Amino acid sequence: MSGCVVGGLGLGRAAPSAFACFLRAGELTWDALGPNTLTVSFVTFAADRSYATVTLLASKTDPFQQGATLLAPAVPLSTCAVACLLLICHHRAPQEPLFMLKGSCPFDRGSFVTMLRLCLEGCGVVPSSYSGHSFRRGAATWAAANGADADTIRALGRWRSDCFRHYVDRSAAERATTSRAALYSNTSASLRLDIPAWRDL
After folding, report:
1. Where do transmembrane segments lie in this chain (predicted)?
2. What is the rounded average pLDDT for all residues in the chain?
3. Which of 18, 64, 137, 179 lies deepest, with the highest CB count within 10 Å?
């Protein structure tokens, strides 16, 4: 890490893409350049800049390295992934790593997590419970809170099973609302105790 600066360019520009594309930490960080390192050449933009396309050559759930195409929508926010990617790719060579630290140093996982926790601490948030998967987990939770169904979240996060449900955190109030709707929405009907479902068979 000699000569590298932990902060600045790394997290501030990587975080919007990590969130918008449900990226795993290993998909945006790197220790040494390799064939699967995410580079500038793997990002393209719609003609009207309404979205950006990020191509992954390989990932954790892609053992045959078929690749995956991720889309980040443009939004009118300071955390817009498209705006950040445009800044990153501007006047950069196609073969350069998409994310790196000042001094062209590797954007490794340790630095990524360190920067994340420093930023959280600066915002008054206890950082110890956060990790490289926090953006992915947060994206799944936020999508669910905004009404996205399970199939949509599974597709956006490229999960092959329902394991993503472990990522979706719901508050006590949300769980109570779900329970109320599932168990007490039909208060006019009598609860039948004579059906097989109640019995210890």
Report:
1. none
2. 81
3. 18
